[in-house]
């Protein structure tokens, strides 16, 4: 079995080392991104919820970029929320700004009781575009 093809962003935060996981794993033309939280570089949570969600998306974009992808390449999203009812409006506002226009990726939101000190986490699966295809493969 081949070794895992791990992907890390250029300025990776401390949580990858503290919790011993890869930011993402490349498998063929798919990228499986670990849950990204709104952590600062030292691994501590962003204290304001909406800012934490924005930082989680920024951390996600950094991982996607390191693999040669963008949010346009995301096909499946799972988000985790510690208080979905109270947090939904803020998450939807950030999501609308980050994800953009249709067609949207699949999305599953899950309410949880614990996220290691965080209140929001986002994990995705993305298709890694080949070097010779156009940037918008969905138009085909």
What does this molecule look like?
It holds the Pfam family Ribonuc_L-PSP. With 140 residues, the protein is an alpha+beta fold. It has a single domain, classed as 2-Layer Sandwich (60s Ribosomal Protein L30, Chain: A), CATH 3.30.1330.40. Helices cover 27% and strands 26% of the residues. Strands 1-2-3-6-4-5 form a 6-stranded mixed sheet, with helices on one face. The protein is globular, with a radius of gyration of 15 Å. The protein starts with a strand and ends in a 13-residue tail after the last strand. The C terminus is likely disordered.
Structural class: alpha+beta
User: Outline, from the CA principal axes?
Assistant: globular
Largest beta sheet: strand ordering: 1-2-3-6-4-5
The total beta strand count reads 6
Number of helices: 3
Low-confidence stretches: 134-140
- H-E order: EHEEHEHEE
Count of distinct structural domains: 1
CATH class assignment: Alpha Beta
Largest sheet at a glance? 6 strands, mixed
CATH architecture: 2-Layer Sandwich
CATH topology: 60s Ribosomal Protein L30, Chain: A
The end-to-end distance, rounded to whole angstroms, is 34 Å
Report the mean per-residue pLDDT as an integer.
89
Strand content: 25-35%
Instruction: Give the % helix.
Output: 25-40%
């Amino acid at each position: 079995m081949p070794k895992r093809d791990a992907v890390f962003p250029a300025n990776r935060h401390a949580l990858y080392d503290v919790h011993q996981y890869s930011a993402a794993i490349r498998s063929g033309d798919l990228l499986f991104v670990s849950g990204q939280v709104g952590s600062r570089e030292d691994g501590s949570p962003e204290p304001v919820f909406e800012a934490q969600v924005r930082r989680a998306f920024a951390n996600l974009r950094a991982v996607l970029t390191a693999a040669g992808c963008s949010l346009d390449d995301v096909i499946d999203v799972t988000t985790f929320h510690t208080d979905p009812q109270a947090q939904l409006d803020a998450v939807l506002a950030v999501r609308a700004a980050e994800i953009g226009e249709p067609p949207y990726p699949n999305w599953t939101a899950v309410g949880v009781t614990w996220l290691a000190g965080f209140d929001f986490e986002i994990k995705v699966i993305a298709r890694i575009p080949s070097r010779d295809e156009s940037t918008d493969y969905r138009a085909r």
